[in-house]
Amino acid sequence: MREDIVTGAKFPDYILPDHTRTPRRLSDLQGDQFMVIMLTRGFFCPKDRQQMLELVRFHPQLAVGYTQVVTITTDDWHTTNNYRQQTSAPWPFLYDEERIVQKDLDIKEYTDTSHDVMIPHTIVLGRGLEVAKVYNGYYYWGRPSVAELHAELRELARRTYSDWDITRPELRKKWQEGDKSDFYPYGKNSISMETLMLQMAGAVDQYAGRAKGH
Prior knowledge:
It contains eight helices and seven strands. The protein is an alpha/beta fold and about 210 residues long. InterPro entries: AhpC/TSA, Thioredoxin-like_sf.
């Protein structure tokens, strides 16, 4: 992994086609939410498939926790669709046959002489594609468990949302006075409830460009 892809850095805003062959920009897929990116070897890898199945089971919690998911693979379009369908993953799969991500991040799995793939990584991003955590999954146990993702996202949310603890007297006072600036998504610089619901549903074509950023 490139040395500059560390906690606090901005992850590259790649544009790649998704499983419908529609070009997607990572920041558009993210909106103003968190994001978990799975860089996968591809359809053939049983380790990646097992991790994918765990993420599928975890996904309902990610959705209500304002967290997007995206998978990036070097498979072709047809194989990418098979991969997504056979794991029942509801999120976007981006395919990168030209190995743009593999080359840019310097994650070619050089020990695999049969496939030109990426070393698997799982990356947790805060708002604005800010890197919160990078997991190297070359060995399966290097990948985050659902419990680890939960803990990482909890800490990320605690740092991100100013209304994390609404029992604080000063927050209660602000709300009672009609000052919602510190409350998500009601604040002046936040997003509409409509956009929030669209992001939770993954309806990127409807919400892209609406979020105001934070």
